[in-house]
């Protein structure tokens, strides 16, 4: 046991967050703490850290455990360079190093005057082992690796912390924690201020972390990759599950089915006995039996299964944007530079109606700059931006919320963009974005940064433009709200350009990927999985070319290798049989070829299945749209037409990919 949370209770006024909440974290466990927004996840972390206190219950740590805590918000006003700020956080490691030096000196002095005490040697061994295990000898090297993994360019290592924005300061706080290497890490939304590549690095870091981890996160792909337990806040208690987030969802649904069945059986039994009680309670000959049944009813009611609160599933149909021309936005010969940095030079990019584009690449490569130029928020240094016919642009970023009026309530802000909606419709939308009950009557001026961001996003989707430009829209949303947003964006018939660290969202929404790195822009016409496949394929090809371009081996080993090949080729084959050496070489060649072809074949299988599904649906829609009944229902016809146009664009892309994959496999097989 490294942490034990035992029967915690916590209330704020009439609202109870926890009642008898308990769970235990053991060394090496990687826990996700999940629950709907407002369930008390952050409050529980603060109780564990002693920042807040429970009404009843206790928090127990293992002896001498070292705990690190990352809050959702942090602010560093320090003028200390980033690398020094991170290294200065390793207080325990530095103290161990100093103690090791003291002990070395004491051992040397004791050795000069006589025998060295065993206790001195034992303590030195313990201190030295701990110092080494925490990376004391590689402190600066580890600090640099962590900062690079979190997306800091090397040139930024020496900049003062105060110069960085809030998102980057969160990364500095993460780096400080990771370098300390605490026995227990508590992380509250660690991916919120990271890009996709930094999130992938963080996954690997957490997966290989030697200590225990407790994470609050709304990123499903992240939790699936690096947690092995889930602590779910349900009905003010905590239920633990073994496995990652997807496993938790399945187990939870299985448990829920059993609980529903038991609850239904209990209610049927109560109803059956209540009929008897109502009929015979005042009849003398049956009064005793009626009394027995009344007692049994009360007993069952006291044991009645309490079903956990269901996940919110908000299916909200957002209005379609104004229909634009085929060409939505175009950048021609665009360059962008700042005082001391050239970001882009002579790039071309055209977006079409129905494109759902995700911008990927390392932090600082220029993703946000490109998004701002497409949105018209920033002008290119050279080149031109052109919008298509009937194209309006909506731009969302958490630091661009000037469109909100401070004196308005949340409900008034929504009403300003959706005056024809009923109040229940407006409240339903706001509920999806985590504004419920009295929250809708709050003034904008008193909202937190996260609340303002959610309100701005809700306003945008109430009356969307033909071109949506979204920079990290899922920050400050819980999983249910992300589901709602994901569904809205996936079915959005206009054009979308997205930057997001949420891999699940990116996988669901994107049909084009723009990779930005090293001042270059590469456009991949396909979804995120195809982009990952292409990156891996190109990397493998480059590696193979480097291997094949190496000169023939020299020296003794080279002579032996050449001689083996020569002997194998000269060895006579009797009765058509191959030598053992030939069979071994052929088997190795086949294994290498299969390994090389596996990602291609796996992708081809997925493409074939997707192509078959989309063609079948395309044929269905063709038949459906020929019916007069559909024409009479304008809303259904528009939905069908939108889906038909989407398939019309998607099928040729998949067919091209299928042809390319098939050709590559044939060529590789012929060469192999």
In a few lines, what is going on in this structure?
The chain is an alpha/beta fold and 672 residues long. The chain has 21 helices and 18 strands.
Largest sheet entry? 6 strands, mixed
Shape: globular
- The whole-number mean of residue pLDDT values reads 81
Strand elements, count: 18
Protein name: ABC-F family ATP-binding cassette domain-containing protein
Domain ABC transporter: 3-260, 329-543
Pfam families: ABC_tran, ABC_tran_Xtn
Coiled coil: 590-624
Can you walk through the features of this model?
It is built from 21 helices and 18 strands. The longest helix has 45 residues, at 580-624. Helix 15 (479-490) links the parallel strand 15 (467-471) and strand 16. It is globular. It is of the alpha/beta class and 672 residues long. Residues 552-577 have low confidence and may be disordered. The strands form four sheets. Strands 5-6-7-3-8-9 form a six-stranded mixed β-sheet, sandwiched between helices. A six-stranded mixed β-sheet has the order 14-15-16-12-17-18, sandwiched between helices. GO terms for molecular function: ATP binding; ATP hydrolysis activity; nucleic acid binding. Residues 567-586 have a biased composition (Basic and acidic residues). Residues 3-260, 329-543 form the ABC transporter domain. It comes from Enorma phocaeensis. InterPro entries: AAA+_ATPase, ABC_tran_Xtn, ABC_transporter-like_ATP-bd, ABC_transporter-like_CS, ABCF_ATPase, P-loop_NTPase.
Topology:
Elements lengths: L2 E10 L2 E11 L4 E5 L6 H9 L6 E6 L5 E4 L11 H7 L2 H23 L4 H16 L5 H11 L16 H15 L3 E5 L7 H12 L4 E5 L3 H7 L2 E6 L2 E6 L2 H36 L6 H16 L24 E12 L2 E12 L3 E5 L6 H9 L6 E6 L5 E4 L13 H8 L5 H10 L16 H14 L4 E5 L7 H12 L4 E5 L3 H7 L2 E6 L2 E5 L3 H21 L6 H16 L9 H45 L3 H5 L1 H38 L1
Parallel strand pairs: 3-7, 3-8, 5-6, 6-7, 12-16, 12-17, 14-15, 15-16
Antiparallel strand pairs: 1-2, 1-4, 8-9, 10-11, 10-13, 17-18
Helix pairs in contact: 2-6, 3-4, 5-6, 9-10, 12-13, 12-14, 17-19, 19-21
């Amino acid at each position: 046991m490294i942490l034990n949370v035992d029967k915690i209770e916590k209330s704020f006024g009439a609202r109870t967050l926890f009642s008898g909440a308990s769970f235990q974290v053991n060394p090496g466990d990687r826990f996700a703490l999940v629950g709907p927004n407002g369930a008390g996840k952050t409050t529980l972390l603060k109780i564990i850290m002693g920042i807040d206190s429970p009404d009843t219950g206790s928090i127990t740590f293992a002896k001498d455990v070292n705990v690190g805590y990352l809050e959702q918000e942090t602010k560093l006003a320090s003028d200390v360079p980033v690398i020094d700020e991170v290294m200065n956080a390793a207080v325990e490691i530095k103290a161990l190093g100093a103690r090791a030096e003291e002990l070395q000196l004491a051992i040397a002095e004791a050795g000069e005057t006589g025998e060295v005490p065993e206790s001195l040697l034992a303590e030195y061994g313990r201190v030295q082992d701990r110092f080494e295990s925490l990376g004391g000898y590689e402190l600066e090297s580890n600090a640099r690796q962590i900062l690079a993994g979190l997306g800091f360019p090397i040139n930024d290592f020496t900049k003062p912390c105060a110069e960085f924005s809030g998102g980057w300061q969160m990364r500095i706080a993460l780096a400080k924690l990771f370098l300390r290497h605490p026995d227990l890490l508590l992380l509250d939304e660690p991916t919120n201020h990271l890009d996709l590549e930094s999130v992938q690095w963080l996954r690997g870091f957490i997966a290989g972390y030697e200590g225990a981890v407790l994470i609050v996160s709304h990123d499903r792909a992240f939790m699936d990759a690096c947690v092995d337990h889930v602590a779910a806040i349900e009905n003010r208690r905590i239920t633990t599950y073994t496995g990652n987030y997807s496993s938790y969802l399945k187990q939870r649904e299985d448990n829920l089915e059993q609980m529903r069945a038991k609850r239904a059986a209990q209610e049927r039994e109560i109803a059956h006995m209540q009929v008897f009680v109502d009929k015979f309670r005042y009849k003398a000959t049956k009064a005793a039996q009626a009394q027995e049944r009344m007692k049994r009813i009360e007993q069952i009611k006291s044991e009645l299964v309490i079903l956990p609160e269901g996940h919110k599933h908000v299916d909200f149909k957002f209005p379609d944007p104004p229909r634009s021309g085929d060409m939505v936005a175009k950048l021609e010969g665009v360059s962008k530079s700042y005082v001391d940095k050239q970001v882009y030079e002579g790039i071309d990019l055209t977006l079409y109606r129905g494109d759902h584009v995700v911008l990927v690449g390392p932090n600082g490569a220029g993703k946000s700059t490109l998004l701002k130029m497409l949105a018209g928020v920033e002008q290119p240094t050279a080149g031109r931006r052109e919008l298509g016919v009937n194209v309006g642009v909506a731009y969302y970023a958490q630091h661009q919320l000037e469109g909100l009026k401070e004196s308005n309530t949340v409900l008034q802000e929504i009403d300003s963009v959706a005056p024809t909606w009923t109040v229940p419709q407006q409240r339903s939308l706001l509920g999806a974005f985590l504004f419920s009950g009295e929250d809708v009557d709050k003034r904008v001026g008193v909202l937190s940064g996260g609340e303002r961001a959610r309100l701005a996003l809700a306003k945008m989707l109430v009356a969307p433009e033909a071109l949506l430009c979204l920079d990290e829209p899922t920050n400050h949303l819980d999983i249910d709200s992300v589901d709602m947003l994901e569904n809205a964006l996936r079915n959005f018939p206009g054009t979308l350009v997205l930057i997001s660290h949420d891999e699940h969202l990116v996988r669901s929404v994107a049909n084009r990927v723009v990779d930005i790195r090293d001042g270059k822009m590469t456009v991949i016409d396909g979804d995120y999985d195809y982009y990952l496949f292409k990156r891996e394929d190109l990397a493998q090809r480059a590696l193979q070319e480097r291997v094949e371009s190496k000169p023939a081996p020299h020296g003794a080993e080279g002579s032996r290798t050449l001689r083996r090949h020569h002997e194998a080729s000269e060895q006579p084959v009797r009765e058509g049989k191959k030598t053992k050496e030939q069979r071994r070489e052929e088997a190795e060649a086949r294994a290498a070829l299969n390994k090389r072809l596996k990602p291609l074949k796996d992708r081809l299988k997925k493409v074939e299945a997707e192509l078959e599904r989309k063609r079948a649906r395309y044929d269905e829609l063709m038949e459906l749209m020929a019916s007069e009944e559909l024409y009479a229902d304008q809303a259904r016809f528009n939905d069908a037409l939108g889906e038909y146009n989407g398939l019309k664009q998607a099928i040729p892309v998949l067919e091209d990919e299928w042809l390319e994959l098939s050709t590559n496999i044939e060529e590789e097989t012929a060469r192999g």
